[in-house]
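[step 3/7] fold_predict: job queued, chain A
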Amino acid sequence: MSWLIKVPSSTSNLGAGFDSIGLALNLYLELKITRADEWEFIPASACLEGIPKGKDNLVYEIAEKVAKQYSMDKELPSCSVEMKSEIPLARGLGSSATAIIAGIELANVLLDLKLSKDEKLQIATDIEGHPDNVAPSLLGGCVVGHYDGKVSYTQIPVKGVTFIAVIPDFELKTKDARAVLPKEFSYKESVQASSVANVSVAAICSGNWKLLGEMMEKDYFHQPYRKSLIPHYDELYDYLSQEAYGVFLSGAGPTMIAVVDDKNVFNAVKQWRKDYPNYQWLSLQVENTGVYVETEKEVIQQD
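[step 4/7] structure written:
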Protein backbone atom coordinates (compact mmCIF):
# COMPACT_ATOMS: atom_id res chain seq x y z
CA MET A 1 0.00 0.00 0.00
CA SER A 2 1.16 3.55 -0.72
CA TRP A 3 -0.15 7.03 -0.12
CA LEU A 4 -0.12 10.45 -1.76
CA ILE A 5 -0.38 13.60 0.36
CA LYS A 6 -0.67 16.96 -1.40
CA VAL A 7 -0.68 20.17 0.68
CA PRO A 8 -1.32 23.65 -0.75
CA SER A 9 0.86 26.61 0.16
CA SER A 10 -0.55 29.71 1.82
CA THR A 11 -0.17 33.42 2.12
CA SER A 12 -1.00 35.05 5.42
CA ASN A 13 -1.76 38.32 7.21
CA LEU A 14 -3.23 39.97 4.06
CA GLY A 15 -2.14 43.29 5.50
CA ALA A 16 -3.66 43.79 8.93
CA GLY A 17 -4.84 40.21 9.53
CA PHE A 18 -1.71 39.49 11.53
CA ASP A 19 -1.44 35.84 12.63
CA SER A 20 -5.16 35.39 11.92
CA ILE A 21 -5.99 35.56 8.19
CA GLY A 22 -4.63 33.11 5.66
CA LEU A 23 -5.35 32.04 2.12
CA ALA A 24 -4.50 28.73 0.41
CA LEU A 25 -2.73 29.05 -2.95
CA ASN A 26 -2.10 26.61 -5.78
CA LEU A 27 1.53 25.83 -5.07
CA TYR A 28 2.00 22.44 -3.44
CA LEU A 29 4.11 20.18 -1.27
CA GLU A 30 3.61 16.60 -2.41
CA LEU A 31 4.59 13.41 -0.59
CA LYS A 32 4.60 9.92 -2.11
CA ILE A 33 4.81 7.37 0.70
CA THR A 34 5.64 3.66 0.46
CA ARG A 35 6.53 1.13 3.13
CA ALA A 36 10.27 0.53 3.57
CA ASP A 37 12.78 -1.10 5.91
CA GLU A 38 13.79 2.26 7.38
CA TRP A 39 12.71 5.88 7.26
CA GLU A 40 14.01 7.83 4.31
CA PHE A 41 12.99 11.23 2.91
CA ILE A 42 13.99 11.75 -0.70
CA PRO A 43 14.04 15.33 -2.05
CA ALA A 44 12.74 15.42 -5.64
CA SER A 45 12.71 19.21 -6.12
CA ALA A 46 15.54 21.70 -6.30
CA CYS A 47 14.19 23.81 -3.43
CA LEU A 48 14.28 20.77 -1.12
CA GLU A 49 17.93 19.95 -1.67
CA GLY A 50 19.74 19.71 1.64
CA ILE A 51 16.69 18.81 3.75
CA PRO A 52 17.19 16.14 6.45
CA LYS A 53 16.70 12.68 4.97
CA GLY A 54 16.08 10.70 8.14
CA LYS A 55 14.05 10.99 11.32
CA ASP A 56 15.30 14.55 11.79
CA ASN A 57 13.08 15.63 8.89
CA LEU A 58 10.35 18.03 10.10
CA VAL A 59 7.59 15.96 8.51
CA TYR A 60 8.68 12.88 10.48
CA GLU A 61 9.07 14.85 13.70
CA ILE A 62 5.49 16.11 13.40
CA ALA A 63 4.18 12.64 12.53
CA GLU A 64 5.95 11.12 15.52
CA LYS A 65 4.54 13.81 17.82
CA VAL A 66 1.01 13.07 16.62
CA ALA A 67 1.56 9.32 16.93
CA LYS A 68 2.68 9.65 20.56
CA GLN A 69 -0.28 11.88 21.39
CA TYR A 70 -3.02 9.84 19.72
CA SER A 71 -1.70 6.30 19.48
CA MET A 72 0.58 5.58 22.39
CA ASP A 73 0.55 1.82 21.78
CA LYS A 74 1.60 1.99 18.12
CA GLU A 75 4.77 3.06 16.35
CA LEU A 76 4.97 4.62 12.93
CA PRO A 77 5.88 1.94 10.37
CA SER A 78 9.03 2.76 8.42
CA CYS A 79 8.47 4.39 5.05
CA SER A 80 10.24 5.88 2.08
CA VAL A 81 8.90 9.37 1.37
CA GLU A 82 9.53 11.15 -1.91
CA MET A 83 9.04 14.88 -1.42
CA LYS A 84 8.30 17.37 -4.19
CA SER A 85 7.66 21.05 -3.62
CA GLU A 86 6.82 24.10 -5.71
CA ILE A 87 7.02 26.34 -2.63
CA PRO A 88 10.16 28.43 -2.17
CA LEU A 89 11.57 28.15 1.34
CA ALA A 90 11.66 31.09 3.77
CA ARG A 91 9.80 33.41 1.39
CA GLY A 92 6.55 33.88 3.33
CA LEU A 93 4.49 31.29 1.43
CA GLY A 94 3.89 28.82 4.24
CA SER A 95 6.51 26.17 3.48
CA SER A 96 6.87 25.14 7.14
CA ALA A 97 3.09 25.05 7.59
CA THR A 98 2.75 22.61 4.69
CA ALA A 99 5.32 20.35 6.35
CA ILE A 100 3.30 20.43 9.59
CA ILE A 101 0.07 19.51 7.80
CA ALA A 102 1.88 16.79 5.84
CA GLY A 103 3.28 15.32 9.07
CA ILE A 104 -0.15 15.23 10.70
CA GLU A 105 -1.67 13.54 7.65
CA LEU A 106 1.24 11.09 7.50
CA ALA A 107 0.55 9.89 11.05
CA ASN A 108 -3.17 9.86 10.39
CA VAL A 109 -2.93 7.53 7.37
CA LEU A 110 -0.18 5.26 8.67
CA LEU A 111 -1.90 4.62 12.01
CA ASP A 112 -5.50 5.02 10.77
CA LEU A 113 -6.18 7.59 13.51
CA LYS A 114 -9.34 8.92 11.83
CA LEU A 115 -8.65 12.47 13.03
CA SER A 116 -11.31 15.06 12.21
CA LYS A 117 -10.44 18.30 10.43
CA ASP A 118 -10.95 20.23 13.66
CA GLU A 119 -8.62 17.87 15.53
CA LYS A 120 -5.97 18.23 12.82
CA LEU A 121 -6.28 22.01 12.92
CA GLN A 122 -5.96 22.06 16.71
CA ILE A 123 -2.79 19.94 16.53
CA ALA A 124 -1.30 22.09 13.77
CA THR A 125 -2.08 25.37 15.55
CA ASP A 126 -0.70 24.08 18.86
CA ILE A 127 2.55 23.38 17.02
CA GLU A 128 2.67 26.56 14.91
CA GLY A 129 1.29 28.93 17.58
CA HIS A 130 -1.21 30.62 15.26
CA PRO A 131 -3.65 29.39 12.59
CA ASP A 132 -3.02 31.76 9.69
CA ASN A 133 -0.92 29.41 7.53
CA VAL A 134 -1.82 25.93 8.76
CA ALA A 135 -5.60 26.51 8.59
CA PRO A 136 -5.81 27.33 4.86
CA SER A 137 -3.28 24.62 3.99
CA LEU A 138 -5.50 22.11 5.78
CA LEU A 139 -8.96 23.44 4.90
CA GLY A 140 -8.48 25.45 1.70
CA GLY A 141 -9.81 28.88 0.77
CA CYS A 142 -9.55 31.94 2.97
CA VAL A 143 -9.61 31.24 6.70
CA VAL A 144 -9.93 33.75 9.54
CA GLY A 145 -8.84 32.19 12.81
CA HIS A 146 -8.29 32.92 16.50
CA TYR A 147 -6.12 30.93 18.91
CA ASP A 148 -6.00 31.14 22.68
CA GLY A 149 -5.26 27.49 23.37
CA LYS A 150 -8.34 26.55 21.35
CA VAL A 151 -8.81 27.32 17.67
CA SER A 152 -11.87 29.18 16.42
CA TYR A 153 -12.20 29.88 12.71
CA THR A 154 -14.44 30.67 9.78
CA GLN A 155 -13.94 30.30 6.04
CA ILE A 156 -14.65 33.00 3.46
CA PRO A 157 -15.12 32.31 -0.26
CA VAL A 158 -12.82 34.30 -2.55
CA LYS A 159 -13.62 34.95 -6.23
CA GLY A 160 -12.64 37.25 -9.06
CA VAL A 161 -9.04 38.01 -8.11
CA THR A 162 -5.60 36.58 -8.77
CA PHE A 163 -2.70 36.82 -6.32
CA ILE A 164 0.56 37.77 -8.02
CA ALA A 165 3.55 36.73 -5.94
CA VAL A 166 6.74 38.75 -6.42
CA ILE A 167 9.53 36.56 -5.07
CA PRO A 168 13.06 37.92 -4.57
CA ASP A 169 16.21 35.79 -4.61
CA PHE A 170 16.88 36.02 -0.87
CA GLU A 171 15.36 34.36 2.18
CA LEU A 172 13.91 36.00 5.29
CA LYS A 173 13.60 33.83 8.38
CA THR A 174 10.41 34.27 10.39
CA LYS A 175 12.33 34.69 13.65
CA ASP A 176 14.27 37.62 12.15
CA ALA A 177 11.06 39.20 10.85
CA ARG A 178 9.42 38.85 14.27
CA ALA A 179 12.42 40.40 16.02
CA VAL A 180 11.71 43.82 14.46
CA LEU A 181 8.09 43.97 15.69
CA PRO A 182 7.12 46.20 18.63
CA LYS A 183 6.58 44.43 21.92
CA GLU A 184 3.43 46.43 22.74
CA PHE A 185 0.97 49.06 21.48
CA SER A 186 -0.75 51.88 23.33
CA TYR A 187 -4.51 51.59 23.83
CA LYS A 188 -5.13 54.14 21.07
CA GLU A 189 -2.82 52.32 18.65
CA SER A 190 -4.51 49.00 19.47
CA VAL A 191 -7.94 50.40 18.66
CA GLN A 192 -6.69 51.80 15.36
CA ALA A 193 -4.91 48.59 14.41
CA SER A 194 -7.87 46.35 15.25
CA SER A 195 -10.32 48.59 13.37
CA VAL A 196 -8.19 48.28 10.23
CA ALA A 197 -8.18 44.50 10.65
CA ASN A 198 -11.96 44.45 11.22
CA VAL A 199 -12.65 46.40 8.03
CA SER A 200 -10.22 44.13 6.17
CA VAL A 201 -12.26 41.06 7.11
CA ALA A 202 -15.49 42.81 6.11
CA ALA A 203 -13.93 43.75 2.77
CA ILE A 204 -12.93 40.13 2.07
CA CYS A 205 -16.43 38.91 3.01
CA SER A 206 -18.06 41.39 0.64
CA GLY A 207 -15.50 40.98 -2.14
CA ASN A 208 -14.59 44.66 -1.95
CA TRP A 209 -10.97 44.31 -3.04
CA LYS A 210 -10.39 48.02 -3.48
CA LEU A 211 -11.32 48.59 0.17
CA LEU A 212 -9.13 45.68 1.23
CA GLY A 213 -6.22 47.29 -0.62
CA GLU A 214 -6.78 50.55 1.26
CA MET A 215 -6.73 48.66 4.56
CA MET A 216 -3.54 46.82 3.57
CA GLU A 217 -1.85 50.21 3.24
CA LYS A 218 -3.03 51.22 6.75
CA ASP A 219 -1.69 48.11 8.53
CA TYR A 220 -0.22 48.84 11.97
CA PHE A 221 0.78 45.34 12.99
CA HIS A 222 3.77 44.28 10.93
CA GLN A 223 4.36 45.80 7.48
CA PRO A 224 5.64 49.21 8.69
CA TYR A 225 8.38 47.39 10.63
CA ARG A 226 9.23 44.49 8.34
CA LYS A 227 9.55 46.55 5.17
CA SER A 228 12.89 47.81 6.50
CA LEU A 229 14.21 44.26 5.97
CA ILE A 230 13.21 44.33 2.28
CA PRO A 231 15.22 46.87 0.25
CA HIS A 232 12.80 46.91 -2.68
CA TYR A 233 9.58 47.21 -0.66
CA ASP A 234 8.61 50.86 -1.17
CA GLU A 235 9.61 50.94 -4.82
CA LEU A 236 7.68 47.78 -5.69
CA TYR A 237 4.71 48.78 -3.54
CA ASP A 238 4.28 52.06 -5.39
CA TYR A 239 4.82 50.40 -8.76
CA LEU A 240 2.38 47.51 -8.24
CA SER A 241 -0.27 49.72 -6.66
CA GLN A 242 -0.79 51.47 -9.99
CA GLU A 243 -2.59 48.39 -11.34
CA ALA A 244 -3.42 46.23 -8.29
CA TYR A 245 -6.31 46.52 -5.86
CA GLY A 246 -3.78 46.19 -3.08
CA VAL A 247 -0.28 45.00 -2.24
CA PHE A 248 0.82 43.21 0.92
CA LEU A 249 3.77 41.43 2.46
CA SER A 250 3.13 37.69 2.34
CA GLY A 251 3.56 36.22 5.80
CA ALA A 252 6.84 37.39 7.24
CA GLY A 253 8.15 38.20 3.75
CA PRO A 254 10.17 38.83 1.68
CA THR A 255 7.58 37.86 -0.98
CA MET A 256 5.13 40.62 -1.83
CA ILE A 257 1.71 39.87 -3.28
CA ALA A 258 -0.44 42.05 -5.51
CA VAL A 259 -4.20 41.46 -5.59
CA VAL A 260 -5.29 41.86 -9.21
CA ASP A 261 -8.62 41.62 -11.02
CA ASP A 262 -8.77 38.40 -13.03
CA LYS A 263 -9.49 40.38 -16.20
CA ASN A 264 -6.28 42.42 -15.91
CA VAL A 265 -3.80 39.73 -14.87
CA PHE A 266 -2.25 38.82 -18.21
CA ASN A 267 -1.34 42.33 -19.36
CA ALA A 268 -0.26 43.48 -15.91
CA VAL A 269 2.10 40.58 -15.26
CA LYS A 270 3.53 40.77 -18.77
CA GLN A 271 4.55 44.38 -18.16
CA TRP A 272 5.74 43.75 -14.60
CA ARG A 273 8.02 40.91 -15.70
CA LYS A 274 9.47 43.15 -18.37
CA ASP A 275 10.15 46.02 -15.96
CA TYR A 276 11.46 43.82 -13.09
CA PRO A 277 13.05 40.72 -14.68
CA ASN A 278 15.17 39.87 -11.63
CA TYR A 279 12.19 38.70 -9.58
CA GLN A 280 10.21 35.50 -9.87
CA TRP A 281 6.60 36.30 -10.79
CA LEU A 282 3.84 33.77 -10.05
CA SER A 283 0.16 34.17 -10.88
CA LEU A 284 -1.59 32.20 -8.15
CA GLN A 285 -5.20 31.18 -7.63
CA VAL A 286 -7.05 30.32 -4.44
CA GLU A 287 -6.95 26.59 -3.65
CA ASN A 288 -10.35 25.83 -2.17
CA THR A 289 -10.02 22.13 -1.30
CA GLY A 290 -7.10 22.14 1.14
CA VAL A 291 -4.96 19.07 1.78
CA TYR A 292 -5.55 16.05 -0.47
CA VAL A 293 -4.85 12.45 0.61
CA GLU A 294 -5.08 9.39 -1.61
CA THR A 295 -4.51 5.75 -0.70
CA GLU A 296 -3.25 3.43 -3.40
CA LYS A 297 -3.66 -0.27 -2.75
CA GLU A 298 -1.24 -2.73 -4.27
CA VAL A 299 -2.63 -4.63 -7.23
CA ILE A 300 -1.87 -8.33 -7.01
CA GLN A 301 -1.87 -10.11 -10.38
CA GLN A 302 -2.77 -13.78 -10.44
CA ASP A 303 -1.72 -16.29 -13.07
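[step 5/7] annotate
The chain has ten helices and eleven strands.
Confidence is low (pLDDT under 50) at residues 299-303.
exit 0
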